[in-house]
Amino acid sequence: MYKAPVEEIAFTLKHVAGLGSALDNGRLGNLTDDLVDAILSEAGRFATEEVAPLAEIGDRQGARFVDGAVKMPDGWPALYKAWAEGGWNSLTAAPDFGGQGLPHMLHVAALEMWNSGSMAFAIGPTLTIGAIEALTTHGSEHLKTTYLPRMVSGEWMGSMNLTEPHAGSDLGVMKTRAERRDDGTYRLFGQKIFITYGEHDFTDNIVHLVLARLPDAPAGTRGISLFLVPKFLVNADGSLGPRNDAHCHSIEHKLGIHGSPTCTMIYGDGRFGDEPGAIGWLVGEENRGLACMFTMMNNARLAVGMQGVAIAEAATQKAIGYAKERTQGKAPGWQGSGMSPIIEHPDVVRMLLTMKVLTQGARAITYACAHAVDMAHGEDARHWADRASLLTPIAKSFATDAGVDVASLGVQVHGGMGFIEETGAARLYRDARIAPIYEGTNGIQAIDLVTRKLPLSDGGHVRGFIAELRDIAAKARAANAPELGETGDRLEAGVADLEAATEWLLSTLADGKQAEALAGATPYQRLFGLVLTGAYLAKGALADGGDGRSGERAALCRFAAENIIGETAALRDRVTSGAASLAAARAVLG
Amino acid sequence: MYKAPVEEIAFTLKHVAGLGSALDNGRLGNLTDDLVDAILSEAGRFATEEVAPLAEIGDRQGARFVDGAVKMPDGWPALYKAWAEGGWNSLTAAPDFGGQGLPHMLHVAALEMWNSGSMAFAIGPTLTIGAIEALTTHGSEHLKTTYLPRMVSGEWMGSMNLTEPHAGSDLGVMKTRAERRDDGTYRLFGQKIFITYGEHDFTDNIVHLVLARLPDAPAGTRGISLFLVPKFLVNADGSLGPRNDAHCHSIEHKLGIHGSPTCTMIYGDGRFGDEPGAIGWLVGEENRGLACMFTMMNNARLAVGMQGVAIAEAATQKAIGYAKERTQGKAPGWQGSGMSPIIEHPDVVRMLLTMKVLTQGARAITYACAHAVDMAHGEDARHWADRASLLTPIAKSFATDAGVDVASLGVQVHGGMGFIEETGAARLYRDARIAPIYEGTNGIQAIDLVTRKLPLSDGGHVRGFIAELRDIAAKARAANAPELGETGDRLEAGVADLEAATEWLLSTLADGKQAEALAGATPYQRLFGLVLTGAYLAKGALADGGDGRSGERAALCRFAAENIIGETAALRDRVTSGAASLAAARAVLG
């Protein structure tokens, strides 16, 4: 069973991601080190003791669609209530509406733990927090006072309605339409698919944020507006009024996250209300809906990245536990009587260490991204905003790929038992698979990274970041510590590969050769993530957490340097010379 | 829907794996090129039209355990009957017992297609064929005449009973016991788990081959004997007699291959018969059971490799089909109106080509292994037996890893739809995951490759094979064909990496440093598979299949050389220098 790795999380936040110096420099108000520890510890307890035990029943029962409503798994409504009452929904929300205004770093750490407990459970509240963020930034005073306090308290949940059957990655072609009414409201008509937690029995009301198009809107993404559409209308006194003309038509039968209802939502077909049309209120300005969504898109992507970290951590813990219990064969050098625990076999050690490295690398990258988000509100705001922008696609893609890879290794470590559902390793393998897809596929992240993030500050930002990474490599070399093995050399080689690929992409983009640059976008994204993994593990190994675990951190860092990040040379090659062969082979696909 | 790639399969068999020259040299009796084509074509038709349409219901319903019996999915018993009546069960069986005595190459090609149609269906007959092989080689005349004709015809199926709760990879510790009886029979007592097709309603009788230990047997694997234990005893006139004391206790709830019943089998608990004890007959000699199993173990491993190829092919076809239909966004250079098919986006092209390369590489390696099996019965028997031995672990591991990786990419190409079970991509992702585990985990394959296969002929065999690969690389360079890009250089570099890693392993083993060699076993196995992929794609590209597709083969070969096999340098490093860091980091795991 999962046990939240609170100490490892705290160490990574403070000594790798930057929370320590942010606290020291007074960048986080009156937040103290002790308070950080207390919050992490309690979030970890909740994830370990309350969420994780209900993961299996959530997977087995799944969300059930009965008579037009969604019945959540046994025990989940009470779990949600306990979670909201614990104040976890309000961690980062604005104090004006009942929030605690804590930094994003604490939020992502807590997110990681809840998702390790149950990804299907944690995704719902995550989306509500995103809706709170969008409303806080773009909502009118009326909308904010009516909805935010009850969303921040968790009394009501939110949902995000973007996707339509023909509009997934490309939202510009969406068809859901909104008509203006004289009273300032709108009527919405259309169908949305893949709406996570679009319907459930956790809360009395659900606040849908819906993207739709006005009749006179420009074509494409500049003609999309954002609307708030509650499941139940809210009376002036705050009590619930009549049902709005919005309902869940069906839920999907999915590979994983069975407890999370994935809804097809119908707006305005006349099932409820006097006349057809779901009543909605504009959020932000007309035709500026996508800009409103962009406010929260980056954070949503990082939140999905946390799911990757979460699954990887849960899978690693489970695999290590099994490998210590299960005996089979005699490992080389085994002196004990009988069979050795399989954790003594070198190949199993390799799998488990690979899982550890990918998990810890993904954690460090995502936390560093959250740190940049937090820092983007003070001095050097531009620098940190750029850093957050640059890190977001890497954090999302690297962490979610790690989730899939680590969960798959986790099944493998379990052998035949891994294929049996009751073991639980298979659930992680199934749950993990959606994370590289939703909130922008990892291919979309790579396009974003190469075409929008590398050019930030004319390439100056990414070059500065690479210089920081080179500095870490130099420090690892200068440490001259035997336990770091070849870390300095290997990391310097990785940074050089990253730099060469980056410069090639920047000049290729400058030459207007978009297709050539995009051909290497995914290998580049992977290359960046691997180098960051090596660098952040080295940074952690060079820091003293005061917990006597420096030796272990150095050993894991060395393993990563000598066994995991060596692919950077091949990835660099794919970026700088792979485009021609890719274009030439396109015809093979017919 | 899957369509058997009969032409690609025939090309690979004939021009890459060696079927063409074997036919030319008269090594395959009176088998003709036309007969090969006819068999492949009909096997492909059966897989496409009969098997594949029943895959989805098999997954959804699964095998069901009702009142102590297993009810197979709707339509499956009739499918099995049609399959057996088509003579597919008897392809490679000995003519003495009704078999067709065809080469193994045709068998694996047919296996690939049936597994692409439905892996859960194809695994059952595969195991029967393995049981036929074991009985043919080691069974007494009485057992052969009693059982083989009806197993070859498909009237009865077989099952293989090895695993026990504490004896998976390490069979030496199994506890199932066999007692001698005066009439020459034995009574078996024990429990076996993970028994594929241990119980079902396809056939009236099931012939279980069971490993067990005699009371006076030596400890470990030298004390294991093999027994034939029929579900129903067979009367002297061949009619079915009373039920034997063997039954299925339960079936597993698995991640994938839901249609395949995975049984816990109980032998000798007294449920059936006059006295407790399942009646069994010895196959081969007492305490030589594992040797009997080894006869077929290699072929079973290759058969599992075929499942990897099969899933990869099915996933690739499905993904290409979807990528041509689904439109989203505008790819760079897209001139059409509206959105482009996603197959025009470079990142999607990269995923699909990667899938193609891994599928085709895995196919070529497995077919080459089957070719070696076929050649091991004539002149140069020793050479080809060594080749089959060497290739088996690579074929099993590389192909099954490819199955998982390609199925995962297939889900990714489908985006959100990939996560919805009805799409079918998720089923392939689930089914694929068992193949790297059963019939010896891929980690076990790597141990076998390094410790038992590399030392064949004092390393002479592997060195000779590497020389052949270098020759292919030299030919690719000498072809001097622009469409092959850097294939010659890249492949030569890959072969050099393979050679360096091989020599390091051989000398490390010679020095008695077993643990150090094993630390790099899995990276080495992967390295070997990647180099073989590059070499076999080049061999295919340099051959003229007379089908006007040479250009496509060259383009795919170039893509593989410039985008897929570049990891060999990093893998070589892991083999030759990774052991120390692995050992140092073992402590991190607690």
From TrEMBL, chains A, B:
Residues 465-584 form the Acetyl-CoA dehydrogenase-like C-terminal domain. Keywords: FAD, Flavoprotein, Oxidoreductase. Residues 287-449 form the Acyl-CoA dehydrogenase/oxidase C-terminal domain. The keyword Flavoprotein applies. InterPro entries: Acyl-CoA_dh-like_C_dom (IPR025878), Acyl-CoA_DH_CS (IPR006089), Acyl-CoA_Oxase/DH_mid-dom (IPR006091), Acyl-CoA_Oxase/DH_mid-dom_sf (IPR046373), AcylCo_DH-like_C (IPR036250), AcylCo_DH/oxidase_C (IPR009075), AcylCoA_DH/ox_N (IPR013786), AcylCoA_DH/ox_N_sf (IPR037069). Residues 38-155 form the Acyl-CoA dehydrogenase/oxidase N-terminal domain. PROSITE patterns: ACYL_COA_DH_2. Its cofactor is FAD. Belongs to the acyl-CoA dehydrogenase family. PANTHER family: ACYL-COA DEHYDROGENASE, BROAD-SPECIFICITY LINEAR ACYL-COA DEHYDROGENASE FADE5. This is Acyl-CoA dehydrogenase. It comes from Shinella curvata.
